[in-house]
Design brief:
The structure holds two protein chains of two kinds. Chain A is an alpha/beta fold. Chain A has four helices and seven strands. Chain A has one domain: Rossmann fold (3-Layer(aba) Sandwich). The radius of gyration of chain A is 13 Å and the shape is globular. Chain B is of the alpha+beta class. Chain B has 15 helices and 17 strands. Chain B has a five-stranded antiparallel beta sheet with strand order 2-1-5-4-3. A five-stranded antiparallel beta sheet of chain B has the order 7-6-10-9-8, sandwiched between helices. In chain B, a hairpin with a 2-residue loop joins strand 8 and strand 9. Classes of the chains: A alpha/beta, B alpha+beta. At the A-B interface, helix 1 of A face helix 9 and helix 10 of B.
């Protein structure tokens, strides 16, 4: 069920968020857009989210913390971390248990579609 | 602070050692000089005793000879003797015995028969012409000799009596000298022997057999040929004793070793004196050394403390912070050194603080720049994705082409942004290089893939011709990626439509342990020779490339050199440019190569 999977996008940049929605919808996915992670505290996460695309720099926390929370709520969820600049001392291996893939901003349309397609087809851990 | 200085201890050791060596040398010299002086005094004493004995002997003998000559020269005695008036002669001479102090007075006739004998009348009439003295005088000469007579020494002299040129008799005069006069003259420890006619007459040497003295005489016979040398003071072993000996001849220069005085001083007495001297010298020396050592320890204590402070201060300056000043405890060069040290650490503290402030500013700048780059890159993602989404819309082909151009120019914008960011991080010390084994083929193909749309857009063919067996490099991967990205973008800018860009590679065995040379070659416009010299300098202006900041190649050089590599250019204007990178081979690879070899 690759096509039609529900993709969660959390990014505070409206341009990126809307362009991603446009591209993913056009590719046949369903998309949930969030400006930051605050709705996660109250709103119940739709159980059918397959992949989450999370920006590292969020207004009230970093993407890895959000990824950890998402994984706790839905262990089957796959997480793509996206960022323009990771901190100098950031170690991706350290976050490997909550982040499945990383894409450096700016990435191309083809890059994000390829990563999302791969994660939708892979088995849940 | 506890005084603990190894240098101080060594210094003290050197001090004490030199003190002891100097003192020992001084003592040995003093001892040598003092011993020499004592031996010299000793020899002078021996010689003095010998001369005193000689003077005494010569005085007495002179007295006897004068008495004999005086009596013989009296014409009355000759007349009485010739006339045979012996009784008158005896009466006339009798008072002379006392007056002259003689103990023996004999007068013979011209045949050597005793006519008058004052000290012992019994011998009158006896013929003593055989007596060597009498015999000599019968021939008209005067003579004298020394003989042993019971416990005494007899000094006798004869003189001929003439009457009108005719020899009429002989006067024989003599005195007895108690042997103790010799002993009286000799000081304690000095022994005297008198030889007369090579016969031992007096011997005051204690416990010394005569045969040993005879040996001495024998040795003197040897010295007869060179009498001058024999007169010296000598060291001789007589019996079981060591003696300092000297010889003095008694008259008769043609036969100096017939009659002589031998004086000896036992060395045992001298040795005692020398031992005492040594004890005194070394006792005083030892006491001086002790005082010197105590003073040395006391004086070096201050130096050791200062050295310990300096050592501790230097150690703290090296390992910890440039915390504080060290105490200045001495007023000498070490104290000055400590003051200089304090001045130096203070200057260093100020410089370090300035550097830290500068570093902080630089870090703040880099962080600020990083923030700006983030703020540019984040919306750029939206812009790019939006443009790409637009490509799916049905648009006229020329609009599609323009949209692609916008995307590709954003790649150039990103490259410059990353260059600025890398440089500011590198210069502020924030860029941490993490070298690892990087297979070059994989990295190159990823970059070519990344820039393929741009190359395609510009009509440039881009290929990799790396040998499949090229070993891994030991580099920081992001650094190498940045360098290659810059070189590829530069090549794309320089190469006109229809040209080509090729990435080549080869393994250089030299220098050890081997390096990989990567070449980015283009068929572009090339670089004029005058521009090649300062191609890698910062903010180099490139008049024909108005859009470039000139940072790209400077960053390439900086990053390559930070990864222990080299970069150089080879270019023919109009034909193309080749940028060469030489980077070290990964260690495990060199080990494998070594194993294969």
């Amino acid at each position: 069920m690759a096509m039609g999977s529900n993709i969660l996008v959390i990014d505070d940049d409206a341009g990126t968020r809307e362009a991603l929605a446009d591209i993913l919808l056009r590719a046949g996915y369903r998309v949930t857009l969030l400006e930051d992670e605050s709705p996660l505290a109250t709103a119940k996460l739709a159980p059918d989210h397959r992949v989450a695309v999370v920006d590292y720099h969020l207004p009230s926390g970093n993407g890895v913390e959000v990824a950890a929370r998402l994984k706790a709520l839905n262990p089957g969820l796959r997480v793509v971390l996206i960022s323009a600049e990771l901190p100098q001392d950031f170690d991706l291996n350290f976050a490997a248990h909550v982040v499945d893939r990383f894409l450096a901003k700016p990435f191309s349309k083809d890059a994000i579609l390829e990563v999302v397609a791969q994660l939708c087809h892979s088995e849940s851990p | 602070m506890k005084v603990k200085s190894k240098v101080g201890v060594k210094l003290l050791g050197v001090n004490l050692l030199s003190l002891f060596v100097a003192l020992l040398g001084l003592l040995l010299i003093i001892q040598y000089l003092a011993t020499g002086q004592i031996l010299e005094w000793h020899r002078q004493r021996v010689e003095l005793v010998a001369r005193l004995v000689l003077a005494e002997y010569q005085g007495k003998l002179q007295q006897v000879m004068q008495a004999a000559s005086l009596l013989a020269d009296n014409p009355t005695y000759g007349e009485l003797l010739a006339a045979g008036e012996i009784a008158s002669l005896r009466n006339l001479i009798r008072p002379m015995l006392k007056a002259t102090g003689l103990q023996v007075l004999t007068i013979t006739d011209s045949q050597g028969i005793i006519q008058v004998r004052l000290h012992d009348p019994k011998g009158v009439g006896a013929n003593i012409s055989a007596n060597p003295l009498v015999r000599a005088s019968l021939k008209g000469k005067t003579a004298s000799r020394m003989t042993q007579w019971q416990d005494s020494i007899a000094l006798s002299a004869t003189a001929p009596i003439y009457l009108e040129e005719r020899l009429v008799g002989v006067v024989l005069a003599g005195v007895f000298i108690d042997k103790s006069f010799v002993e009286y003259l000799s000081r304690p420890g000095a022994e005297v022997a008198v030889f007369y006619g090579k016969r031992l007459v007096v011997n005051s040497f204690q416990n010394l057999p005569e045969k040993d003295l005879a040996e001495v005489v024998k040795s003197l016979d040897l010295g007869e040929s060179t009498p001058g040398t024999a007169l010296r003071v000598q060291q001789l072993k007589l019996g079981s004793q060591d003696y300092t000996l000297t010889y003095l001849p008694m008259g008769e220069e043609e036969k100096p070793w017939e009659n002589f005085i031998l004086v000896g001083v036992n060395r045992r007495e001298l040795d005692q004196t020398l031992t005492t001297l040594k004890l005194v010298i070394f006792g005083v020396g030892g006491a001086a050394a002790l005082v010197g050592a105590i003073l040395s320890v006391g004086l070096s204590q201050g130096m050791r403390r200062q050295i310990a402070h300096l050592t501790e201060g230097t150690r703290r300056a090296a390992s910890e912070e440039l915390a504080g000043d060290i105490p200045v405890t001495s007023r000498d060069e070490l104290g000055e050194l400590a003051e200089s040290f304090n001045a130096m650490t203070q200057a260093l503290r100020e410089k370090t603080q300035q550097l830290q402030e500068e570093r902080d500013r630089s870090v703040a700048n880099a962080e600020f720049l990083s923030m700006i780059v983030h703020d540019i890159k984040a919306p750029l993602t939206g812009v790019r994705l939006t443009i790409e989404a637009l490509e799916d819309e049905t648009l006229p082909p020329e609009i599609h082409q323009k949209l692609k151009g916008i995307i590709q120019r954003s790649e150039g914008l990103l490259l410059h942004l990353h260059n600025v960011l890398y440089l500011s991080r590198f210069e502020s010390g924030l860029l941490a290089l993490r070298p690892e084994a990087v297979p070059p083929a994989f990295l190159v193909s990823r970059l070519l893939h990344h820039f393929a749309p741009l190359a395609q857009h510009q009509g440039v063919q881009m290929t990799s011709e790396l040998p499949p067996d090229l070993p891994a490099l030991w580099v920081d991967e992001p650094s190498l990626e940045r360098v290659l990205a810059n070189l590829i973008v530069n090549a794309l800018e320089a190469t006109p439509r229809g040209g080509s860009i090729t990435v080549l590679g080869r393994l250089n065995p030299e220098p050890e342990p081997g390096e990989v040379e990567l070449v980015v070659a283009d068929t572009g416009c090339g670089i004029p020779l005058k521009d090649q010299e300062n191609l890698f300098e910062k903010y180099r202006l490139r008049p024909h490339k108005g859009s470039s900041s000139g940072l790209g190649l400077y960053i390439c050089k900086t990053l390559v050199e930070a990864n222990k590599g080299r970069i150089w250019v080879e270019s023919v204007p109009g034909e193309g440019t080749k940028f060469h990178l030489a980077l070290p081979v990964a260690r495990e690879v060199t080990e494998e190569l070594a194993q294969v070899a």
